[in-house]
Amino acid sequence: MIFERLDIADLLLIKPKRHGDDRGWFSEIFREDAFQREAGSVAFVQHNQSYSKPKGTIRGLHFQTDPFAQGKLVRCPRGRVLDVAVDLRTSSGTYGQHVAVELSADNGHQLWIPAGFAHGFCTLEEDCELAYMVTNYYSPQHDRGLKWNDPGLGIAWPVAETDAVLSDKDLRQPALSELGPVFS
Length: 184
Prior knowledge:
It catalyses: dTDP-4-dehydro-6-deoxy-alpha-D-glucose = dTDP-4-dehydro-beta-L-rhamnose. Belongs to the dTDP-4-dehydrorhamnose 3,5-epimerase family. Pathway: Carbohydrate biosynthesis; dTDP-L-rhamnose biosynthesis. Homodimer. This is dTDP-4-dehydrorhamnose 3,5-epimerase. By secondary structure, the protein is mostly beta strands. It has a single domain, classed as Jelly Rolls (Sandwich), CATH 2.60.120.10. 9% of the residues lie in helices and 40% in strands. It has a 6-stranded antiparallel β-sheet with strand order 1-2-10-7-12-5, covered by helices on one side. Strands 9-8-11-6-13 form a 5-stranded antiparallel β-sheet, with no helix packed on it. A two-stranded antiparallel sheet has the order 3-4. Strand 3 and strand 4 form a beta hairpin. The mean pLDDT is 97.
């Protein structure tokens, strides 16, 4: 596995190696020892999967507050997405900044997003699935979000606002300036 440090501290792009022949390929998608060498001591407690049918579906930007904040290891086993992490750590020099990477079934890449970030994605084609392991259990009382198209974030989503497919919940999320401090 190749671990690539991204422009915001603590975010990692993980590129598992694929060993192939005329039958296809094999890949280790997670090794605890290698992951913990790069990301630190992390324990995953829940594995989630989402399916989005239409191209242009946006899910996010989501996070959970303490004491149920979650780190997420995200991959796209079907389709292709633009995956986004927004730094919500007020003590960070990159507070309010984001990283966007393409995750796909073809590239096999994964994104490690530690607690303290909002996460979202946009499907770049129809029939996309995202699988992610998380470091804390889902807690509806601690579930929060951030406005996906907040101009203050400057995220270049690959879909026009009028064409984006969103849930009612995601349409009602606050802008970063309305959120207040969430993580130190």
